[in-house]
Amino acid sequence: MKIPDDDISEKPPRAAKLQGFVIRAATPDDAEAISLLANLPGYRFGTLRMPFQTVAETRKWLENPAPGANRLVADLDGLVIGDIFLGPNSGRRRHAATLGMGVHDDFDGRGVGSALMKAVLDIADNWLNLKRVELTVYTDNQSAIRLYEKNGFVTEGHFKDFAFRDGRFVDAYSMARLKG
């Protein structure tokens, strides 16, 4: 039986990969731009950040980073459209680091997260010789989970009622990527 053409529903085309942005180290001068990014509803929904992050709060952790921390941003002509953090551990956990990231609501699904992930995993593998990179991700953040899996992360655990978000408790996965 032939289905009439007007009954076929197709997925809308995916937005084209974004061109022209650069990945660079974050600086204290990025405090306002990163605060604006962090206060976007979609960005914040996927993170543990509270609403209304101030420029002063952002500037404080940019000026006083944790030892060995690497914070990168995706910069499109002066607009910060994504950021990523790699925080190495110390002592008996110095082989591991924690990762956190987010992408501007208007640029999600356009390759920004992939570029940030590629840059930070290069640092982890080729400069810090990290064996393990860890993260947590809300179980309903399917686009982030796909990005992490594409980059070798596997789910190691399921945290029930991990965080309080938007008026209710939500679950999260613990994911990690182990290098050879």
UniProtKB/TrEMBL annotation:
It comes from the Bacteria. Keywords: Transferase. Transmembrane segments: none annotated. Residues 21-180 form the N-acetyltransferase domain. GO terms for molecular function: acyltransferase activity, transferring groups other than amino-acyl groups. This is Putative acetyltransferase. It comes from Neorhizobium alkalisoli. The lineage of its organism: Bacteria, Pseudomonadati, Pseudomonadota, Alphaproteobacteria, Hyphomicrobiales.
